[in-house]
Design brief:
The protein is an alpha/beta fold and 471 residues long. It is built from 17 helices and 14 strands. Bound molecules: uridine-5'-diphosphate-xylopyranose (2 copies).
Length: 471
């Protein structure tokens, strides 16, 4: 079976870049990315490639090449479903904020809506691909919904989780370590798997394409994210011990990372991991383990999240303690708001939680991030406070403690402390001598990413603090 027409529902951080690369690499396949959000689709169609809704290095070049040829962005979901022989579901699956499983389980309402819409529109057989991260055995739910309309159409469900990391998405898609395709081990399931293998074979070699049963594929995505996040929580746990013992976390990470069984990647101590996936997927994993009556397994993975919360809190506390136990009325500069460099995504960013602690203690937070807008920053904080049941009045008050800059000019004047929350490269090249002159003394600098040069900063006169190191 040869795929000629692909539709993807969900033009977000996953759907947008993934489909752009498929279109770019497969000129014979027409790819239509649809979304219910009109503003987002308009941004994907903007003539000016600087206005794309997500910032991702290399993305605009890919879009410039494919858009309008065989890559289209549209809000006409029904038409795209009808025309497609393969449909990717890449809608968001956030943690539930209500009802059964609140705060833990993945909210699958958008996925279910997609399945119902596909079932009601389709007039010919289609392959449905789960791209969103889903709890293991969701494919069964999707299949049941699809098969329940009784319109005689055959649907084959595949799982094809996305492993790209934001900030390096295009490179990750071009040179994937592997793509994973799970499907039913039946004759029609195998035909569907092969159809998707053929799509990826346009640019990846056979050894980069793994095929498994549906459940292994669904669970592998959760497992990969859990293992990655666990490494960060492990190194962050050690960073606290380093600060107590005068060991140096970067030296420890290097020493253990040279053991080929451990490996050197994902051992960078930080203020805590963020992003749309790690926390959500681990909470979902914990929920699943409890559901399957495996409390010890659930507790084990939950600790990864608890340690991450502790790391964010520990950083905020370090700032407060060093500023003579109060930050009330003090100006604290935040460099970075995104959850990592080279993205404008702020979901679950450590910055949000650190800011929350400091604002509660009375600080005025002055924020500069090269790619994140004022409205995004304020909506991130408002969302957290609303979730925590804080009143509208109190939220308005708290927001008067937040100041956002779209340029780095004037940010540092009369500040008491600076905190680095994201590892943007440009921060390393600032004129730290001049910045020091503008600040109140002692001038505190808390590097939540260990990216700046400690000798140089201490030489200038900064009280410079890092993660997992003492002076
Ligand atoms: C993805 C995955 O799909 C998620 O499961 C994974 O764990 C994280 O990454 P992402 O692309 O980052 O989600 O989400 P987002 O940027 O929010 O994009 C989802 C898009 O789907 C949004 O633009 C939203 O408008 C759209 N959507 C949502 C629909 O088009 N229809 C719906 O019914 C719901
Ligand atoms: C992650 C997975 O890497 C990816 O495979 C999956 O598809 C989606 O989730 P992403 O969240 O985009 O990708 O970025 P990632 O590079 O994994 O970083 C996640 C967070 O961990 C960031 O906040 C980052 O700063 C932090 N991190 C990462 C560390 O603190 N230390 C590290 O060593 C690595």
């Amino acid at each position: 079976m040869k795929i000629k027409n692909i539709c993807c529902i969900g033009a977000g951080y996953v759907g947008g870049p993934t489909m752009s690369v498929i279109a770019f690499k497969c000129p014979n396949i027409k790819v239509t990315v649809v979304d219910i959000n009109e503003t987002r689709i308009a941004a994907w169609n903007d003539e000016n490639l600087n206005n794309l809704p997500i910032y991702e290095p290399g993305l605009s070049d890919v879009i410039a090449e494919a858009r309008g040829k065989n890559l289209f962005f549209s809000t006409d979901v029904d038409a795209a479903i009808d025309a497609a022989d393969m449909i990717f579901i890449a809608v968001n699956t956030p943690t539930k904020t209500y009802g059964e499983g609140k705060g833990m389980a993945a909210d699958l309402k958008f996925v279910e809506l997609c399945a119902r819409q596909i079932a009601s529109i389709s007039k010919n057989d289609k392959i449905i691909v789960e791209k969103s991260t889903l709890p293991v055995r969701t494919a069964k739910t999707i299949q049941t919904i699809l098969d329940s309309t009784g319109n005689g159409v055959n649907f084959e469900v595949l799982s094809n989780p996305e492993f790209l990391a934001e900030g390096t998405a295009i490179d990750d898609l071009f040179n994937a370590d592997r793509v994973l395709i799970g499907g039913n081990q039946t004759p029609s399931g195998k035909v569907a798997i092969q159809a998707l293998v053929d799509v990826y074979s346009n640019w990846l070699s056979p050894k980069q394409i793994l095929t498994t049963n549906l459940w292994s594929s669904e669970l592998s995505k959760l497992t990969a994210n859990a293992f990655l996040a666990q490494r960060i929580s492990s190194i962050n746990a050690m960073s606290a011990l380093c600060e107590a013992t005068e060991a140096d976390i970067d030296e420890v990470a290097h020493a253990i990372g040279t053991d080929s069984r451990i490996g050197s990647k994902f051992l960078k101590a930080s203020v805590g991991f963020g992003g749309s996936c790690f926390q959500k997927d681990i909470l979902n994993l914990v929920y699943l383990c409890r559901f399957f009556n495996l409390p010890e397994v659930a507790d084990y993975w939950e600790q990864v999240i608890k340690l991450n919360d502790y790391q964010k809190y520990r950083f905020a506390k370090k700032i407060i303690n060093n500023l003579f136990n109060t930050v009330n009325g003090k100006k604290i500069v935040f460099l970075g708001w995104a959850f990592k460099k080279d993205t404008n995504d702020t979901r679950e960013s450590a910055a949000i939680y650190v800011a929350d602690h400091l604002i509660e203690d009375g600080a005025n937070i002055h924020i500069y991030d090269p790619k994140v807008t004022e409205s995004k920053i304020k909506s991130d904080l408002t969302y957290l406070w609303e979730l925590n049941g804080i009143s509208e009045n109190r939220i308005s008050q708290k927001l008067t403690q937040v100041f956002v800059y779209d340029k780095v000019i004037d940010v540092f004047k009369d500040s008491h402390a600076i905190a680095v929350l994201t590892e943007w490269d440009e921060f390393k090249n600032y004129n730290w001598k001049n910045i020091f002159k503008e600040m109140y003394k002692p001038a505190f600098l808390f590097d939540g990413r260990n990216i700046l040069c400690s000798e140089e900063l201490r030489e200038i006169g900064f009280e410079y603090y890092q993660i997992g190191k003492v002076k």
